[in-house]
Amino acid sequence: MKELRNGDGLVPKSQFWATDQGGHRQIGCIYTAQGLEYDYGAVIFGPDLVRRGDRWVVDPKTNEDRSMKDIDSRLYPRLAANIYWVLATRATRGCWLYSVDEETQAFLTTLLQPTVES
What we know:
Order of helices and strands: EEHEEEHHEH
Shape: globular
Distance between the termini: 40 Å
Number of domains: 2
Number of helices: 4
Structural class: alpha+beta
């Protein structure tokens, strides 16, 4: 597989992105992150799992993962929550949480106390 260049330098070969020194600016998914640990990570909550009032609301149709598109709607909330949990727990020193949904982002900020590492 050929390596490509991006604006910030060399992009690692896809199969090595998670362990390559240049992989720290790469975006992965559940399939590439599961079973690995990183010092720092970030999780982007998509529109498939949003917070509305006091509950989580799911929309499987907005998930870009083809294997999740046809999941039974009764199973989807648990599967989606597990995926986000796995992604959020890969980082051992710090993890940023971001949601594309404003209301969900506001909720996420109430859960965590930001800390600054010295």
